[in-house]
Structure formats: structure tokens, C-alpha cells
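A reminder from the course coordinator: this example appears on the midterm review sheet, so study it carefully.

Given structure:
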């Protein structure tokens, strides 16, 4: 196999698909229905199993378990479920990631350029966008969605069916039980909106004019005492539209669990 480096102690099923440049460390296990893209690096003692696809240039560190059965009592061994991982992701030590369930659509999806630090957990049917960061021991329950550039602090737990919006940041040791608005900074037990994620907005190249609009929108939505419906009406009336304001309004209107207060 072209430019593939497999340690002699690793166990690779004959049905696994390994692309050029793959490196597999000592005592790793790669099961039958696994596909590893170009230049994927798998550390020692990793297990990659299930119907799992890992995109090119991903790095999977020691002890990670990727693609093992969902922790859901309704899951059966012969359920046809999947885990799709994009490109350029870093999956650190002892991370666990489960595929989807039939009830949830059958698929867990992780985008590109994400960092999952040590001991993180991604449960069944989660969808993670691009450029997200999960700090050490952050855990996602089933059916959680992370939009692009979301950041989760260490030891934070996210309730099932919760969404975390684009460019949000959640402080460490938080308890997230409702949707985290895009562009927000949230913290607490349960997590509450503190302010806009000013640093994240600046790093993402969001203009100061748009950041000011978001700050005004947050004041109306979270700190005015208005109901969500009336607050959104006032935002649409008082603030000139831009893509970020439109996304905030859409996110709030489509929230099923409600927004962090």
C-alpha cells in the first residue's frame, strides 16, 4: 500500500480502506467498514470502528475511540448507522465519538478544521460544523448541533437536542440546557447570556459596525424585559439588517428548546 505506515502491533481489518499517507500507531485497531483519507494519523491504542469515514489530514491521538456504538438503549447491533468526519480535524487523547441512530437520521457528522481536546465526548446524531473547539472534557449529548466557529469551555455539558450558534463561546464548567445564541458569550449553571462574543467577532473579521448592531440586538433580546416575540419585532424595526442580524433572528425564531436567558 502506497506510503502507508502501519505499526506491526496494529490490527487492521482486511476490509478497511486506507488512503496514501496513512499512519497507524502501536496497538491501534481499525475495523472492517472504516475509511481513512489521505495522510490520516492514528495514534497508539486507538479504536476506529463502525461505518466511519475520516477525511484527509485528520490527527487522532492516543486512546481515542471513534465510531463505537451509540449509548442509546434503542440501538441494535445491526442498525445501519454512520459517522462522517471531515478534513483537518484534531481529535486528542481519549476522545469518544458515536455514530447516529436510526431514530435520529442515522448519522453523526463532523465538519472540517475542528479541535476536540482530550476526553471530549460527541454522542449520537450530533452535527458539528467547521472550526469549532471543544476544550477538555466537554461533552455533547445526542442530537446536539454546533454551528461554525463555536467554542465550548472545558468540563461543559450540553443537553440533548440543543443548538450552539455560530461564533458563540461557552465558559468552562457550564451546564447548557437551552440553545446558545450565535455571536454570544454564555456561562453558568445553567448557562446564561453574558454579552456578545466581542473577541470572537473581532478575530473572525466582523466589522465594528456589525458588532455594534449585534450589541444593540442583544440588549433588546436579552436585557430589555421584552418577550422573545416582541424583542425580535423591535430588532427588525430598529436595527438595519445585515447577515449576522438576520442569522440571529432566524436562530431565535427557530429555537425549539428556547434560548439561554
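Designed residues:
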Amino acid at each position: 500500500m502506497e506510503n502507508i505506515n502501519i505499526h506491526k502491533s496494529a490490527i487492521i481489518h482486511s476490509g478497511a480502506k486506507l488512503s496514501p499517507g496513512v499512519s497507524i500507531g502501536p496497538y491501534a485497531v481499525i475495523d472492517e467498514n472504516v475509511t481513512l483519507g489521505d495522510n490520516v494519523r492514528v495514534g497508539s491504542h486507538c479504536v476506529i470502528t463502525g461505518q466511519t469515514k475520516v477525511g484527509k489530514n485528520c490527527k487522532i491521538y492516543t486512546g481515542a475511540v471513534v465510531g463505537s456504538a451509540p449509548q442509546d438503549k434503542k440501538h441494535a447491533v445491526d442498525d445501519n448507522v454512520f459517522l462522517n468526519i471531515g478534513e483537518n480535524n484534531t481529535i486528542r487523547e481519549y476522545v469518544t465519538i458515536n455514530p447516529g441512530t436510526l431514530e435520529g437520521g442515522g448519522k453523526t457528522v463532523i465538519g472540517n478544521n475542528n479541535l476536540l481536546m482530550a476526553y471530549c465526548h460527541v454522542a449520537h446524531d450530533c452535527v458539528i460544523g467547521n472550526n469549532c473547539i471543544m476544550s477538555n472534557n466537554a461533552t455533547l449529548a445526542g442530537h446536539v448541533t454546533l454551528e461554525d466557529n463555536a467554542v465550548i469551555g472545558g468540563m461543559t455539558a450540553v443537553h440533548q437536542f440543543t443548538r450552539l450558534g455560530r461564533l458563540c463561546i461557552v465558559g468552562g464548567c457550564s451546564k447548557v440546557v437551552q440553545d446558545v445564541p450565535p455571536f454570544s458569550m454564555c456561562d453558568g449553571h445553567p448557562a446564561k447570556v453574558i454579552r456578545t462574543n466581542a473577541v470572537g467577532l473581532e478575530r473572525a473579521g466582523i466589522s465594528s459596525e456589525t458588532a455594534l448592531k449585534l450589541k444593540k440586538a442583544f440588549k433588546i433580546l436579552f436585557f430589555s424585559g421584552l418577550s422573545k416575540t416582541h424583542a425580535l419585532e423591535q430588532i427588525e424595526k430598529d436595527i438595519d439588517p445585515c447577515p449576522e442580524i438576520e442569522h440571529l433572528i432566524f436562530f431565535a425564531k427557530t429555537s425549539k428548546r428556547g434560548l439561554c436567558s
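The chain has a mean pLDDT of 97. The CA atoms of residues 42 and 169 lie 29 Å apart.
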